[in-house]
Amino acid sequence: MGTRPATAATTASLALGVLLLAAACPGFTPPALAQAVAHADALATYNDALGRFKAILAERRSQIEAKRLPNLPGQAVYLARNNLISAYKDLTDAVPSKIGRPNKFGIPPAYFDADNEPLLDEYLKLFDLMEAPPANAQSSPTPFKDVVELGMAIARAKGLDAANAEAAGRISLGIFFAETNGHQNVGNARSNTYKGSFQTGPSEDQNGRKKWAAIRSRVAAFDPQLIARDDKEEARAGGLDHRFNHWTAIRDGLMNAHAELFLQIPSIVKTLPNPIDQMKLFELIQIIPSPTRAALRSGNLLAYRITDSTVMKYLRNNSVFAFGKTDRAKTSATFREIMDAMWLFNDKFERARAKFAEIRAQ
Fold first, then answer.
1. What is the Cα–Cα distance from 23 to 106, expressed in whole angstroms?
2. pTM here?
3. Quick one: which of 14, 36, 37, 335 has the most CB atoms within 10 Å?
4. What is the chain's Cα-based Rg?
């Protein structure tokens, strides 16, 4: 609340400067005056968003050190980051010359000032702390390899050949990075429902366990070693929430939402030859499952258009079309447009692809 008067004062001060300039320069026309006021307002809004982001980062760091975090501590931090990106996009829309150099996160420069990289570094560090696994979580010494092997085994059990099963393993690793930034057994600083290595809810985890039981014998027929590992992890998990055993969390998460689409990987790869696009499509199964399945059934995936306002809201809640007035004003989008707008996922998917190549090289 305390920053609002300062913002109003800043805007008023800038506007007064523009008016004085207009008085001193007879050639300063009404359209130019209106544009200058709009530019001043956009700059003031951005400066306010930047100040708010810095303030919430400092507040959360202090609360972490004092061990006094509020419920869902990440939500306000997440929204402040989004407001910063939105305000910068509105500023660069108004003043394109403000678009600066590329940044290490791969965010389009029109949306993010590279000078703020240290702030985003702190943002990520805070989320790592706020989403630390519970003390009883059961980690794996080979978390990335586990994801790949489970994805490939499930794909083979579904009937895919070796090459397409490998694509399933790569896609599975991409989802792991998208959901947890590659960290196992994490909590969720923005939700009390979704937890673990695949960020599933209790019902999703239970559904995945049932589906795994249905194909387990098929996996055993070609990979008894993987089933031996599965027996070991089930015994280790015991009565623990299976979302906090890395192996069972990944297994059940994949079975819950993604395994049924693995048989479509050959046609998906043909339509989307870029591995990053393939990962984006399967991540959309996490975000908007029913519309994504409908798009796949349509026969024209990339041109399939989303017009439902609720679905667009779900996309915005997951950082798609969420930044700046122009993006937020969109009332519909094709799947090609949606995947292009998923640029906040690009860095995670690139790291997943590199990790997959490393695992397969071994």
1. 43
2. 0.89
3. 335
4. 24
Report the distance separating Cα 323 and Cα 327, nearest Å: 6
Alpha helices in the chain (DSSP H): 3-24, 30-66, 73-94, 117-130, 143-157, 162-180, 202-222, 224-237, 246-253, 265-271, 275-287, 289-297, 309-317, 324-328, 335-340, 346-361
Q: Please, is 228 exposed, middle or buried when counting C-beta atoms within 10 Å of its C-beta (0-12, 13-18, 19+)?
A: exposed
What span, in angstroms and rounded, lies between the C-alpha atoms of 99 and 90? Answer: 11
| Complete DSSP assignment for 218-249 | HHHHH-HHHHHHHHHHHHHHTTS-GGGBHHHH
Q: Which residues, at least 6 apart from 312, have a Cβ–Cβ distance to it below 8 Å?
A: 306, 321, 330, 331, 332, 333
Report the 10 Å Cβ neighbour count for 334. Answer: 16
State pLDDT tens for residues 336-353: 999 999 999 999 999 999
**Mind listing the pLDDT tens digit for each residue in 184-228?**
999 999 999 999 999 999 999 999 999 999 999 999 999 999 999
Residue whose token pair is 């085994």: 153
State both tokens at 107.
């965010």
Tokens, residue 124: 């990520």
- Nearest-angstrom CA–CA distance, 137 and 183: 12
